[in-house]
Design brief:
With about 675 residues, the protein is an alpha/beta fold. It contains 27 helices and 26 strands. It has a seven-stranded mixed sheet with strand order 2-1-3-4-5-6-7, with helices on both faces. Strands 8-11-12-13-14 form a five-stranded parallel sheet. The chain has a four-stranded mixed sheet with strand order 22-21-20-26. A hairpin with a 2-residue loop joins β6 and β7. α3 crosses α4 and α20 runs parallel beside α24.
Length: about 675
């Protein structure tokens, strides 16, 4: 996923808080017990007070930001601000919360949906709402699943919401002398929103002179406008990318000047924001992310943390999506207004990865780009391969790579990849505007398996226009693929803000019914518009798919996963001798098979191994390698037989050998 380097993040999921101080301000939302703090007036007072103190900046990472690696948002902004001479420090309060509830429990909660993390931090602001109080009952199945994954009873979550979170927030507001900072900025991505907003409120109450600043995907577009309108203690928020906005914003705050474009703020009682000019492109101007504060804080909390041993380093090589610029995948809402693809120079990427590796004593990296810049294949990963570097890197790519490109990635340190495989249905892939076909997805899985790259992918369903036949064909297509890495699972797509499905629903026969259901149970207040803050939405498309077809697909994938995770997973490999080929087929549940092929069948299997081949190409190859052998009709019969045995996969007149070569030197 690409990095939206503002100060906050994606409005997509969870979090909340109960704090026994003041209830939500009447003018902001829930109406109830609250002392009349005028946050808007305090902003003007803040500027005057700041003149008498050093201008220091705090950047804050709250739950449920991942604890297993540092925040690239904070790291990137820390580097940039320091390069401009600002005095800045990052505070990873999420590490402290993770330590309190257990790192394993915390990590599980980071992964859960239905805004359960936001709900846990919602009590102080929305906890008196009837729906907020009934969250556990309404989402009972999800809560049961969460509790099973963390090994705790439901009472654990309720106690955490009502006692553990308030205790943590009470600690957080006292543990740091926030009053010494002129500006406290919060990054709010995914499930960090209510934890961040609530701490900002508590800081503002105790230190009225502090200016609170937010940004990132949770504050992009109308989401940020609504949050600033509802929460008066949020003084300003950066809308979209921050690098070209943040420095001028801090100068404006310090010098009492008008805010630059791209900043949400209040003017004469109204929440306003002018769109920023252009996007950030000055990658060469700044160095790699600064994660020093993360590692210092982690060492102080847990000197023996596994996260300190060869830690995972987040790094960004490019921003936007070169495919999405021309073909925006219909369900993807990642990029908002920053789809334009921008990439760092190859030499900068090489130098910065080397510098980060040395600085933090690690060879493990997670590249956060939406999609791989193709020039990095040889310029970065090819170089790593030639130098025999021992990196372990995660990256996202488009699945239409060939064997040589996948080999380059594997030899260049890519050990985990997300290739954007979401379907093996031709119709669904076309409707997604993915720009790939099932054949390309299969080829990617085959050679990733061969070169030892772990692939994370899933099958999405629920697309407009899909049919029962699409499900039948896809179910049958994946049955012979059980020797390859299975998907994580099968799940319905989410209607995401900024996706074409959201911005042009009428073009796809979609009717948006409302915000994602969990928003109504977490942000439980009549003063906030859930349609303006939601990142995912409830919808219908008029499709009526036979539930038996859906169940058959789910069961096929579940069985695939179950078999793949056993001590003897399915396999399909072939060995090549001088005059014959042997296929070892461990896919049948009745037991493995060993099949020996000679002559034309052997030639077809080996020739179609590397990449898909047409019938004409196969015939020409056999004519060259086996002069005087059987004619075209016999070759076509051989191809048909190998296809029936599921040793070849056929698509649009091209054929690919599904078996992996036993030879280790491809």
């Amino acid at each position: 996923m690409g990095v939206r380097v503002a100060l906050s993040g994606l409005c997509r999921d969870y979090r909340g808080c109960r704090f026994p101080v003041n209830r939500f301000l009447p003018e902001a939302g829930c109406g109830a017990r609250a002392r009349p703090v005028n946050f808007v007036v305090n902003f003007a007072v803040s500027v005057a007070i700041m003149e008498a103190m050093p201008f220091k900046i705090a950047l804050v990472n709250m739950p449920f930001g991942y604890h297993i690696y540092p925040s690239i948002q904070l790291g990137t902004l820390s580097t940039q601000l320091k390069s401009h001479g600002w005095d800045v420090k990052s505070h990873y309060l999420n590490l402290h919360f993770a330590s309190r509830i257990g790192f394993g429990v915390y990590n599980e909660l980071c992964e859960k949906r239905h805004l359960i993390g936001e709900w846990l931090f919602s009590d102080s602001l929305f906890g008196e709402g009837e729906r907020n109080q009934s969250y556990m009952e309404h989402f009972a199945g999800h809560v049961e699943s969460v509790c099973h994954s963390i090994g705790q009873p439901p009472e654990f979550l309720r106690d955490l919401k009502q006692q553990g979170v308030p205790e943590f927030l009470a600690w957080a507001v006292e543990a740091v002398d926030w009053g010494r900072y002129a500006v406290v900025g919060f990054t709010s991505t995914f499930n960090q929103n209510l934890a961040s907003v609530t701490l900002a409120k508590l800081i503002k109450e105790k230190y009225p002179s502090v200016i609170t600043m937010f940004g990132g995907a949770n504050f992009d577009s109308e989401m940020g406008l609504e949050y600033v309108r509802v929460f008066p203690w949020v003084d300003c928020a950066v809308m979209g990318e921050a690098e070209h906005v943040l420095h001028p914003l801090l100068q404006a705050i310090r010098d009492k000047q008008p805010f630059p474009k791209g900043v949400i703020h209040r003017r004469e009682g109204e929440v306003v924001c002018e769109e920023a000019d252009g996007m950030f492109v000055e990658f060469e101007r700044y160095g790699p992310p600064d994660y020093d504060d993360y590692f210092a804080e982690l060492r102080a909390i847990d000197p023996r943390s596994p996260a300190l041993e060869n830690p995972i380093i987040l790094y960004e090589t490019a921003r936007g999506c070169w495919w999405g610029e021309k073909h925006h995948c219909t369900f993807c809402g990642l990029n908002a207004s920053s789809m334009k693809f921008r990439a760092k120079p190859i030499e900068q990427v090489n130098a910065e990865i080397a510098a980060l590796s040395e600085r933090y004593d690690s060879f493990r990296f997670r590249i956060v780009d939406n999609i791989l810049e193709m020039k990095y294949l040889d310029g970065v990963f090819g170089r790593f391969a030639r130098e025999n570097l021992d990196f372990q890197i995660f990256i996202e790519v488009k699945s239409n790579l060939n064997r040589e490109q996948i080999r380059t990635l594997a030899h260049g340190g890519i050990n985990v990849v997300q290739p954007g495989i979401e379907s093996f249905s031709v119709n669904q892939l076309r409707d997604m505007d993915k720009g790939v076909r099932p054949m390309q997805n299969i080829l990617f899985l085959k050679w990733a398996m061969y070169y030892g790259i772990d692939v994370t992918w899933n099958i999405l369903t629920g697309f407009p226009g899909e049919t029962d036949e699409d499900y039948r064909i896809q179910t049958e297509l994946i049955r012979p693929l059980v020797h390859l890495q299975p998907p994580i699972g099968v799940g319905d797509l989410y209607l995401e803000r900024f996706s074409p499905y959201f911005t042009r629903p009428e073009d796809y026969g979609i009717r948006i019914q409302g915000p994602g259901e969990a928003y109504l149970y977490v942000y439980d207040s009549p003063k906030i518009d859930p349609m303006k803050i939601a990142y995912d939405f409830e919808f219908e498309n008029g499709n009526r798919i036979d539930p038996h077809r859906v169940q058959a697909l789910r069961e096929t994938v579940a069985r695939w996963r179950a078999r793949f995770e056993t001590d003897q997973p399915p396999y399909l490999i072939f060995s090549k001798s001088a005059n014959f080929v042997t296929v070892y087929d461990g896919r049948p549940e009745t037991g493995p098979q060993k099949i020996r092929f000679t002559s034309v069948p052997a030639s077809v299997i080996t020739f179609c191994n590397d990449k898909p081949r047409t019938v004409e190409q196969i015939q020409n190859n056999i004519a060259e390698t086996r002069p005087g052998s059987e004619g075209a009709r016999v070759i076509e019969e051989v191809i048909a037989e190998l296809e029936e045995q599921k040793i070849l996969y056929a698509e649009r007149g091209k054929y690919l050998t599904l078996a992996l070569p036993m030879n280790s030197h491809f």
